[in-house]
Amino acid sequence: MKSRAMAGGAVLVLFGTLVVCAGEFWEKKTYSSWSAREVEKALNDSPWAKTVKFRISEKGLEPFPPGPRPGMSEERVSIAGGPAVDIGPQRAPYPKKTPGETQYPLVIRWLSSRTAREAVARHWQLTDPALGAQVNQLVSAQLNYYTVALHSEPLPLSVENIRERAFLQLPLSVEKIRETAFLQLLPGHKKVLPVLVELVKIKALISPAAHVLVHFPKGVDGQPLVSPRMDAAEFQCSFDDSNRHVNVKFNLHKMVREGRPDL
Predict the structure, then answer these.
(1) DSSP one-letter string for 186-240
(2) What is the pLDDT of residues 189-223, one digit of tens each?
(3) In percent, how much of the chain has pLDDT > 70?
(4) What values do phi and psi take at 195, rounded to 5?
(5) Buried b vs exposed e over 167-196: b needs ≥16 C-beta within 10 Å?
(6) Burial of 263 (0-12, 13-18, 19+ CB in 10 A)
């Protein structure tokens, strides 16, 4: 009897989650009809995105030196084992100095999710329609990992901003992230380490939504990493030489599309 009651409770929780999600645009519309505002919401203010702000003085944030920015090369980058795609040559922006103390947002995105990838794809449909075939590859890719992305500014909604604008960003250290990142599925105490941490090249298709990718295995010891009994996924890491730390929690019950987990 007790087990039946528990099962009924689980159904109610899941049903409640689906009712909440059913009202969102990502459940009502295909991604090719999302507006620019909806793209921004999916990538910055949704169950798949968490924003943390850090207040840093000008002395604590070094601008990039003149010339190519870190990460600019001829290499191509894939997302979570998917296709590697170029978006053409880009000019290296130069940083502007910001006096005093400034808040810098760090957005943590569950980028392997269908919702996040569709949002990036729609961003390119709105800003550079010529990338149609490559955009389709991003959406249809068969992914090998769960991928969490760190991005040190909200998604800019124009190609000109990405290619031409000078800006400062949080100094993300791939080495520090690799040393400290982990994922913890709750309830539970086991910490899962990434299998790969990589810098996103500035010309990668996913560059508007990620600066560093942290890939986690989909299974551990022969068992799926995520199961229906889990409520949340907590991501933590230090991301710079000052050991600034980020700790965000993703609600797995809300990361749902069409009644199925979207991870």
Answers:
(1) ES--PEEPPSEEEEPPTTBTTTTT-SEEEEEESEETTEESS-TT--EEEEEEE-S
(2) 789 999 999 998 877 888 888 889 999 999 888 88
(3) 66
(4) -90, -20
(5) ebbbbbbbebbbebbebbbeeeeeebebee
(6) buried
* Rg of the chain taking only CA atoms, in angstroms: 19
**What whole-number distance in Å separates Cα of residue 169 and Cα of residue 257?**
32
Q: Encode pLDDT of 87-112 as tens digits.
A: 333 333 333 444 555 667 889 999 99
Domain count, the chain: 1
Give the C-alpha separation, 77 to 84, whole Å.
5
Q: What is the mean pLDDT of the chain?
A: 74
What are the CA-CA distances from residue 13 to residues 19, 47, 110, 253, 255 (Å)? 10, 16, 22, 8, 13
Structural domain that includes position 70 = 2-261
Q: How far apart are the first and last CA of the chain?
A: 33
Q: Assess contact for 238 and 247: CB atoms under 8 A.
A: no
What is the sign, positive or negative, of the torsion defined by CA atoms of 260, 129, 38, 201?
Answer: positive
Give the Cα separation of 253 and 16 in Å (integer): 9
The amino acid that residue 107 corresponds to is: V
Q: Under a CB-based contact definition with an 8 Å cutoff, are residues 150 and 210 in contact? A: yes
How far apart CA 242 and CA 176 sit, in angstroms, is 10
- Identity of the amino acid at 45: D
How much is the pTM?
A: 0.75
Identify whether the C-beta of residue 178 lies closer than 8 Å to the C-beta of residue 197: yes
